[in-house]
Specification:
This protein is mostly helical. 60% of the residues lie in helices and 10% in strands. The longest helix is centred in the C-terminal third of the chain and has 40 residues. The termini are far apart. The C terminus is likely disordered.
Length: 399
Amino acid sequence: MASSILGDSLDVHTGGFDLKFPHHDNELAQSEAYYENDHWVRYFLHAGHLTISGCKMSKSLKNFVTIKEALQKNTARQLRLAFLLHSWRDTLDYGPNTMEVAMQYEKFVNEFFLTVKDILRLVPSHGIAAFEKWNQEECQLAKSFDEKRAAVHSALCDSVDTRGVLDSIRDLVGICNVYIRGKRDSRTPPNRALIQSIAAFVTRIMKIFGAIEGKQPIGFPQSGECANNLEETVMPYLTAFADFREGVRKVAREQKVTAILDACDSVRDDVLPNLGVRLEDLEGQPTALKLVDRKTLLHEREVKKQEEEKKRLEKEQRKQEQLEAQAMRDAQRKTPPSELFRSETNKYLKFDEKGMPTHDIEGKELQKSTIKKLLKLYQAQEKKYNAYLQSIPSSNGDS
C-alpha cells in the first residue's frame, strides 16, 4: 500500500519500537525482493510507547485516556511540554508524576518571563539610561547564552532531542535568574538588552515547539486574553497604583500606622490575585507587577495559607512539647531521691534503706557496674531535689 503511493523507495517509515522485528523486517524483505533494491526504506523512526501506570495504552486493556479527558486535567501546553520533556524514542508513562514535572517546568519558565517583563517595564528602553556598560556579570551571562544557544542547536541536530533542548533552556533560565537576583541584591538594574534577548530566544524555541501561540515577542500569552495588547493597556494603571501604594506604605511605616500597612497587604494578598495581578514588594526597589492567570494566583494563595497554618500548628506543637518537658523536669525535681527507683517495680524487686535497688525483678542481686550507674543517677537526683528544697523558702519569701 505504501509503495502504491510512494513508489519503490520511501525516505521515512515510522512506527512503534515494538514493530522493529518481525513486522518491519518482513516489510523490508518482501519489498526489496519485489523491487530488487536495498533501499526500500532509507530511514526508520521507531517511537516509544505511551503507557499508563506502566502498561501500554490500549483499548483492549481499557486503560486509555482520550485527549478530551486529558485536557480536563491539564492545559494543552502542559501536555505538549510533557511530551517534549521526553525523547520521542523513549517510553512515556502518562500519569500524575509526569504531568507534575511538566507543570513545574511551565511554572519555572513562566516566572522567568514575568520577571523579564517587569524588568522591561522598569528599565528605560531608550536614551542614555538604556545603555549600560557591561561588567563581568554581563560578559559571563552573554557567554552562557552563547553556549546554551549552541547546545540547543546541537540537540535539535541530534535526532530532534527535544528533552536536551528543554534541559538547556532550563539551565539558561536558571543562570539568568541568578544574574537577576545578584543585580537586585546590589540594587543595580540588570542589562535590559541582554535579558530581553535571552527571553526572546526562549520564546522563539517555545513557539517552534508549539508551546506558545500568538505574536507576542516574550512569554506565554495571558489566559482569556481578548486582545494582544492587554499588558500594554493595563500596566500603566497598575504601575500608577503600585507607586501610590508604595508611597502610602512608606508614610505608614514612618508614622507606625499598622492598620494602613495591613490594608496594603490585604490589597496585595486578597484583592489583586482575584484580578489576575501579582504584586511583589521588593526591599529598596520598585514594586514588581506581573499578570498571571487568576486560577494560578488563587491556587498559590491557598497553598500559602496552608503552609502558614502548618507552620503555626508546628510552632504550637513545639511549644506544647517544651511545656510538657518543663513540667516533667519540674516534677522530677520534686521527687525525693529515695523514691526515684521505687516506682520502677517492673525492673527492681528489693531496695536498701536509701531507696537504691539491690535486686532485679527476678530476685537476682544487681551487678556492681549496674549499681554504680544507678548511684550516679541517685546523686544527680539528690542535687536536683536539694536545689528544689532550697528554692521553696525563697519563693515563699518573695510572695
